[in-house]
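Task: sequence design from structure.
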C-alpha cells in the first residue's frame, strides 16, 4: 500500500538526474533504508550497493560513528555561512585535508558538489593568470572522454559525446588530447600508447602553451568515460610537461579521492602534486554534499591583495563549509586513520582482482580494468576484433537490470559494467557480489 502510493507519487512528480524517465517508469525503484553494504527498497527487497550509491559510500550505510558525528554537531549548529567568516568543523577539516593531500596543497576552498569544485578549479586557474597580468593564458586542455560534472563549465572541459553534444553551442572551447586508452589503442600496448599520448600532449603544449591556463584530467582512472585506466607513468609525464611549459595541472579527484584507488589520492600513485585538486564524493563517507578545491600557496598568493586591486576570488555558494557536512567528513577521515583503511583497500583490491581474473574466460568480457576498488568490465560483441555491441541494444543497461533482479545495484557506463563496492565491504560480501556480477553478465550476453 505504502509502496504503491509512493510509486504513483514518484511517477507523477519526480524528474530524476541522468535518467530517461521512460526507463524509470518501466523499472521504478524506491529505496527505503540501508545498512552496511546493502540497500532495501519499499517492497522489502535487498540489494548490494555495488556502486557505492554512485561512487560515494565508504564505510557502508548507517555507520555508527558517522551518524553520531552528525547528531553531535546538530546539538551545536547545523549551518552558518563561510562568506567572510568560518566555523569550527570547516576549520578543523581544512587542516586535516592538508595533512593527507599531496604535499604542497595547503589551501582548501569548499563547495557542495564535484561539479562546483571543478567550476571553482577552472575559475581559479583562469584568474590566477589574470591576476598576474598574463592575460593570454586563458584556455584549457582536456582529455577525450573526460568527465568533470554537469554544469556548463564542467561540461565545457568534459568530452563524452553522448552526454555533451546537445549542449555544444553553450560551451567554451578547449583543446582536447587523447587519453591513453590502452585497450582501444591500435598497438594495444601500454607503453606505446602512453608515449604516443604524451607526445601528442607535448606537441600541443609546444604550439599553444602561451594561451593555455591549465590542463584538467582525471588521474589514474577516467570514471564516467568508462572506467579507463591510465598506463603507469602517464600522470607523472603529464605533470612534467605542465611544469616544462608553465601550464597549471588540475587533478579532478572527485571520483578517485579518499582511498578509492588504493592510495588516499590517485595522484599519490605517481607522487604528483597538482596545482589544483578537486575532491568530493567519498569525502563525507557518502553522507552529505561537501566538496573541496585544494591548491598551493603560489596560487593563493596571486589572489591576496588589497581589496581595491580586485584580485578577490569572486565565487561562493550558500552552503559552503556546512557544519554538518564538515563534521561527518572529519569523522569519516578519523575512521580512515583508525582502521588503516588505505591498507585494507589494497588488500581487498588484490582479492577482487583475483576474483575478476576468472571473467577473462567469458566470451563477451573484452577488458577488465581496475585500480583499488574501482573496476570496470568492458563488454564487447566480439573479443577478437574488440567490436562493440550494437549501441541501441543497451547491453550494459540490460545487465544492470538483470543484476538488480539478482539483488545488486550498479550503473553501467555504456557497455562498461561498473563495480565500485563500499571500501568497507568484507571479503565474503565481495565474493557474493562478484558471483552475482558473473551471473548477470552471463545471463544477458550468453543467455545462460
Ligand atoms: C562525479 C564526478 C564529478 C561531479 O561530481 P558531482 O558531485 O556529481 O557534481 C566531477 N568529476 C568527476 C571525476 C566525477 O567522477
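Answer:
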Amino acid at each position: 500500500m505504502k509502496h504503491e502510493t509512493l510509486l504513483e507519487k514518484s511517477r507523477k512528480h519526480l524528474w530524476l538526474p541522468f535518467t530517461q524517465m521512460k526507463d524509470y517508469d518501466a523499472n521504478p525503484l524506491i529505496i527505503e533504508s540501508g545498512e552496511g553494504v546493502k540497500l532495501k527498497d519499499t517492497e522489502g527487497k535487498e540489494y548490494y550497493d555495488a556502486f557505492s550509491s554512485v561512487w560515494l559510500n565508504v564505510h557502508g550505510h548507517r555507520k555508527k560513528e558517522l551518524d553520531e558525528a552528525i547528531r553531535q554537531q546538530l546539538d551545536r549548529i547545523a549551518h552558518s555561512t563561510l562568506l567572510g567568516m568560518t566555523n569550527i568543523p570547516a576549520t578543523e577539516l581544512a587542516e586535516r585535508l592538508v595533512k593527507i593531500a599531496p604535499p604542497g596543497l595547503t589551501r582548501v576552498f569548499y563547495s557542495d558538489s564535484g561539479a562546483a569544485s571543478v567550476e571553482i578549479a577552472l575559475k581559479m586557474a583562469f584568474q590566477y593568470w589574470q591576476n598576474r597580468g598574463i592575460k593570454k593564458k586563458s584556455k584549457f586542455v582536456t582529455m577525450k572522454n573526460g568527465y568533470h560534472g554537469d554544469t556548463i563549465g564542467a561540461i565545457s572541459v568534459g568530452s563524452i559525446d553522448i552526454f555533451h553534444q546537445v549542449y555544444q553551442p553553450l560551451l567554451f572551447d578547449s583543446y582536447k588530447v587523447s587519453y591513453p586508452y590502452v585497450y582501444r589503442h591500435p598497438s594495444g600496448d601500454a607503453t606505446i600508447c602512453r608515449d604516443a599520448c604524451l607526445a601528442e600532449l607535448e606537441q600541443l603544449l609546444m604550439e599553444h602553451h602561451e594561451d593555455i591556463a591549465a590542463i584538467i584530467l582525471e588521474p589514474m582512472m577516467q570514471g564516467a568515460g568508462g572506467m579507463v585506466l591510465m598506463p603507469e607513468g602517464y600522470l607523472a609525464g603529464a605533470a612534467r610537461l605542465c611544469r616544462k611549459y608553465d601550464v597549471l595541472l588540475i587533478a579532478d579527484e572527485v571520483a578517485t579521492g579518499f582511498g578509492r584507488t588504493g592510495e588516499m589520492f590517485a595522484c599519490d600513485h605517481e607522487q604528483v602534486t597538482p596545482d589544483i585538486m578537486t575532491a568530493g564524493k567519498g569525502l563525507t563517507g557518502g553522507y552529505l554534499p561537501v566538496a573541496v578545491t585544494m591548491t598551493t600557496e603560489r596560487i593563493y598568493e596571486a589572489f591576496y591583495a588589497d581589496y581595491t586591486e580586485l584580485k578577490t576570488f569572486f565565487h561562493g555558494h550558500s552552503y559552503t563549509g556546512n557544519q554538518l557536512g564538515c563534521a561527518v567528513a572529519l569523522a569519516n577521515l578519523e575512521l580512515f586513520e583508525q582502521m588503516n583503511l588505505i591498507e585494507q583497500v589494497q588488500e581487498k583490491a588484490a582479492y577482487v582482482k583475483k576474483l575478476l581474473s576468472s571473467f577473462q574466460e567469458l566470451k563477451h568480457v573484452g577488458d577488465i580494468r581496475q585500480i583499488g576498488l574501482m573496476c570496470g568490465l568492458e563488454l564487447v560483441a566480439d573479443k577478437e576484433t574488440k567490436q562493440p555491441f550494437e549501441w541501441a541494444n543497451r547491453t550494459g543497461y540490460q545487465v544492470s537490470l538483470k543484476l538488480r533482479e539478482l539483488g545488486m545495484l550498479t550503473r553501467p557506463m555504456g557497455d562498461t559494467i561498473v563495480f565500485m563496492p563500499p571500501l568497507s565491504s568484507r571479503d565474503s560480501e565481495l565474493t557474493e557480489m562478484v558471483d552475482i556480477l558473473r551471473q548477470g553478465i552471463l545471463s544477458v550476453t550468453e543467455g545462460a
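The chain has a mean pLDDT of 97.
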